[in-house]
């Protein structure tokens, strides 16, 4: 049984669990992934994100690269999760163009 969209919309804990699952699957720190996605959705550039999250620009670059290389299913989940958690709808698509 898979996760239904209604499960994501109605339960923030499910969103957090899915985000954690995606991060672990891609060998990423779930806290850093969440914060990098959050600040990127607000339009911050890599150096600004690094300052806010407390990591190096290289780490931010690595995470963004990993997001770009995610399989389609994980990427779509990340788009939905970030949209629901942070209100950003299309920022991940914009990341692909950088």
Structure description:
This protein is an all-alpha fold and 98 residues long. It has one domain. Helix content is 77%, strand content 0%. The chain has seven helices and no strands. It has helices at 5-10, 12-25, 30-41, 46-53, 57-69, 72-86, 91-97. Helix 4 packs across helix 5. The longest helix is centred in the last third of the chain and has 15 residues, at 72-86.
Features:
98 residues; globular
Briefly say what this structure is.
This protein is an all-alpha fold. The chain has helices spanning 5-10, 12-25, 30-41, 46-53, 57-69, 72-86, 91-97. α3 crosses α4.
Largest sheet: none
Gyration radius, rounded: 13 Å
- Assembly state (oligomeric): single chain
Q: Strand share of the residues?
A: under 5%
Overall pLDDT: 82
The chain-level structural class is mainly alpha
Number of strands: 0
Low-confidence stretches: none
DSSP helical segment count: 7
Report the span from N to C terminus. Answer: 36 Å
SSE order, one letter for each helix or strand? HHHHHHH
Portion in helices: over 70%
Layout of SSEs?
Blueprint: H1 5-10, H2 12-25, H3 30-41, H4 46-53, H5 57-69, H6 72-86, H7 91-97
Helix pairs in contact: 2-3, 2-6, 3-4, 4-5
